[in-house]
Amino acid sequence: MLSLRTKARPGAFRVLPALAAVALGWTGCSTYEAKPIDRASVDKALEAAPLESIKVEAARIKHPLLAPVVIDGGGGFTPEEIAVMVVIVSPDLRALRDQRGVAEAQVLQAGILPNPQLGYSVDRPRGAYDPAVVAAKSLGLTWEVTSLLAHHDRVAAARAGAKSVDLSIAWQEWQAAQDARLRAYRILSLQRRLPLARSVEELLADTVELSRKAVSRGLRTTSDLTTATDAWTQAQNTRFDLEQQLSSERAALNLSLAMPPATVVALKAPPRAGFSGAATPADAAALSDGLEERRLDLIALRLGYESQESSLRAAVLAQFPRIGLGLNKTNDTTPIYTRGAAVTVDLPLFDRNQGQVAVGKATRQQLFDEYVARVAEARSQVSQALVGLSVVNAQLSTVASSLPDLRRLVAANEEAGRSRNADELAYRDAKAALAGRLMEQDLLEQQRAELEVALEIATGRPSLNTSPPTGTL
Length: 473
Prior knowledge:
This protein has twelve helices and four strands; from the N terminus they run αααααββαααααββαα.
């Protein structure tokens, strides 16, 4: 450490202001903190959040498309409750939300102006001179003033980009919520269909045994036995497929909820009022009206386009030659001091920022075309979802109209069985047909739920909650 009582060389104290300025700037620097990835840190991050804390967050969630939900949990969770829970605890969404920090850092960086430059040099003579000479010194301060030209546009581009990132994250959160909601509906449907599939398999297995006995007595042909065996095999494969689907859907839902793979989340079906009727061009036009203002992904694309517009303006302004202004104080080896100003100007002979301008124009055109394509895709998705809903509703109506006849057939066979005047095989076939038709009805209900969610996504109109969304970004 230099003491004030130390005899310093001439001019040494003139360097102290520069050193003080450097030290002052250094005090504002960030410090490095290690954050290793190890088993302990990963396990801690994967710990399931307490249910009570999830309930609290769900009741006060702020989101453009998701309204706060009061989660009861009694008797299981509804698909709508599962959707909000996934947004709160999903590890994928947690990583996605980290993009906000990057966007905020980019806004901060865009607003920072370049530092001025302070230069000092000293040349001390050696040897004997007559007359005596002094040390040659130079002290200068320079700053590039043209950084101010594009500063506003760079900041505007970063801010629009940050808003675009926010809306993109909100849109993907809603997509994840809708995906979890669909998985919950599928699980509920599979849980209803699986017992029916097992009952059909058992009935057809009994039919195979009865057919085998009937063949041995000459009452049935081998062809009848083969047909019964094929039907039983198909029913067994159907049951296997449903069990596999249920396991897969539960594993995917548990992953979204940050729960262990073997966890069985209790679900309950909510009352639903689905779309009914046949789709018309008027329906598609009404639902598509204002679509660009509701879908967050389209709004995010427009903000991205706005950010690119500002970036292109900044690139155009950056064609202006860079100019640096400076102040200096110098002396040579004679004791004659000079004070003056300096100007440095780039000569735009080769680099006129033409590359960045070309990239900016191409990127802007790409964003414009992507926006147009996304709008066209969204309008098409609305029409397709409406047509699909019309078909599914017609199929549901047909299935529903056939159920009373099948139930009467089963009841008639049961009554005949009690009077010992019935064909056992016909009775079992009737029961299997009824169970199969009920499975078909459940599958159609699932398809209708999926198409309704697809319609919500395509139009940007949320209906996860009965109350309108109150949160904002």
